[in-house]
């Protein structure tokens, strides 16, 4: 994706940056002039990212480890831009949800967003700079999906957390928004949704008749990080092809 916006001189942290949407956001921000720190729990992914985009700095961390995150993110900052993209999808029928799946999902999809945002927002406030945070949510925060009890619930919690963050951080000139995509055609998305029989039921509920591409999400995130959305905070930007109106 060719950058349409300039982030020259701004520092950005992207979580879940080893693969998929997070990786594409990190690369796009770097190419648009930002100084980017990419966070992932997988060292091999970060190594390949730095080969693709040598200017990116990296943090190899498990976001569920609060003490390690506190130390590493605190030392790597301050940042003016934050994209909380890291997430896990532990898909189980409601009656079979396990405690470990619930805890892992809460730790990464909700707790890590709260914690990383606290660290970065405190840095922004201490520096006296305006900032922007984008949390990557999902259409699953708005619509019940089979086998997604925990995932839907954590993404719904993330949407409300983002609204409260927007309310409390607004006076410090920090904006907070979410993007809420439908199925996205990352490498993993193509594998999981390549079966026409499986994908047909979902696509038939999308008025535009297709799933989202990675750039659809990246472009929306860059817009919300940029000064082009200077009056937008506490909002959820649906990237669902109209799924929720059908």
UniProtKB/TrEMBL annotation:
Give the Gene3D superfamilies listed for this entry: NAD(P)-binding Rossmann-like Domain
Instruction: Cite the entry's keywords alphabetically.
Output: NADP, Oxidoreductase
- Which molecular function term from Gene Ontology is one that the record holds? L-xylulose reductase (NADPH) activity
InterPro entries in the record? L-xylulose/Carbonyl_redctase, NAD(P)-bd_dom_sf, Sc_DH/Rdtase_CS, SDR_fam
Q: Which PROSITE patterns match?
A: ADH_SHORT
Against Pfam families, the record matches this protein to: adh_short_C2 (PF13561)
Q: Name one GO biological process term.
A: glucose metabolic process
Q: CDD domains given for it?
A: XR_like_SDR_c (cd05351)
Q: How does it assemble?
A: Homotetramer.
Q: What family does this belong to?
A: Belongs to the short-chain dehydrogenases/reductases (SDR) family.
Q: What is this protein called?
A: DER reductase
Task: Please name the source species.
Answer: Chaetorhynchus papuensis
Q: What is the lineage of its organism?
A: Eukaryota, Metazoa, Chordata, Craniata, Vertebrata
